[in-house]
Amino acid sequence: MGKRVTCSYRVLCSFLVMCACLLPARTFAQRSERAAIDGEREGLSFLNDKTLEKSRSFIRRDSTYFVGHLYQGAYLFFRANDKLGFTKAIVPLKRALRLIEMDYDKQLRTRSNNYVVYSDAYKYHRDYGLIAYLLDRSYQNVEMPDKAIEVLRHVVDRNFQLEQNVSAYNTIAWIYHRNRVYTSTQFGFLRNSVRENVNMANRYLDSALIKISNDLPLNIGLFDPSYLNRQYLGTYHYKAMIEDYKLEIDSANYFYNVLIQNDAYSSNNYAEFKLAMGELEMADEFFKEAEQREFSPEKTTKEYYYMRGTLNTYRGHPEAADTLLRTVLDKQGSTPGYGWHCIGLARAQHYEGLTAESQERTNKASRFQ
């Protein structure tokens, strides 16, 4: 019996020694493959038709490396038109987030004013922010704000000295504001009144400003001062919007003036502010400007079209709104914003006396996900 145990022990020891010898070779091979993948991803656009197959190639070569899943998720994200499309994008993006956290958590938590130390971690910060942004946006687009909040809290937990591609506190604030009419019954993170949810949004924006100030000593010398200043402007963008909503005119004016002085304002949001002030001509001017300034390949609601149609209806020219929104719907098809633009067109047709057509457009809006 004793000889058998000794023999088994020797076999086990030999096996462990063999594994120990093979491990460095396997690690070296994996590092080489990942370096090759990183080289091939340079210049590869998420909008390129070949990106999906390239992402699959990355996954076949190393399914544990986050990059292939990131590229697959991003490809699907930028082609998503509806709930089904964004739901498909969520699957690889979730996997990418899990894998980058598992393999590179030390780099993700690196904070330093030393250029060499920080530059080694920077690419992981950038990729992590992109994954978080795409995943957060996908969850918001399928009306799962609670899941979007979870992703953003992962970002907060890493305490980046400068967030790349994502702005966690600002986005959490927006999610509270966007969902302010709901309560904790629908989504557990919410408060139970509009006032409380808007207050929570402002508290998160205050947290964003505090974090920027706290991180400033680490970032001075690593980044251009004008770039660091734009971090504040990103938060002011949301501050202006919420103060506008609250009809705190002086505060909204203050934030918008700072944004305009730094050419960091949203033409669409400023037009909304002017509309709230009853300055309809100025509102129309800035909605038209938004069409030129705020184009993005990302498929989102182009609110300026909807609002221009609304202004035409206010002016007593529903036929002009009808023409504009029909054109937009023909171009965009069934992509995010389709529902809103159908509602705007339905309103115009109602005022034109086209009751049946208006009802049909309203039904189409209600069916769109």
Short description:
Helices cover 76% and strands 0% of the residues. By secondary structure, the chain is mostly helical. It has a domain at 278-369.
Based on the structure, what is the oligomeric state of the protein chains?
single chain
The tally of helices reads: 16
Rg for CA atoms: 25 Å
Largest sheet data: none
Count every beta strand, where a strand is a DSSP E run of 2 or more residues: 0
Secondary-structure element series: HHHHHHHHHHHHHHHH
Strand content: under 5%
Contiguous low-pLDDT stretches (5 residues minimum) are none
Helical amount: over 70%
Q: Residue-averaged pLDDT, rounded?
A: 90
- What is the 3D shape? globular
Distance between the termini: 70 Å
What does this structure look like?
This protein is 76% helix and 0% strand. It is mostly helical and 369 residues long. It has a domain at 278-369. α4 (83-108) runs antiparallel to α5 and α13 packs antiparallel against α14. The termini are far apart. The relative contact order is 0.05. The model has no long low-confidence stretch (mean pLDDT 90).
Layout of strands and helices, then pairs:
Blueprint lengths: L1 H40 L9 H11 L4 H14 L3 H26 L6 H27 L3 H14 L9 H11 L15 H26 L5 H21 L3 H13 L5 H10 L3 H14 L9 H12 L3 H15 L5 H14 L3 H13 L2
Helix pairs in contact: 2-3, 3-4, 3-5, 4-5, 5-6, 6-7, 7-8, 7-9, 8-9, 9-10, 11-12, 12-13, 13-14, 13-15, 14-15, 15-16
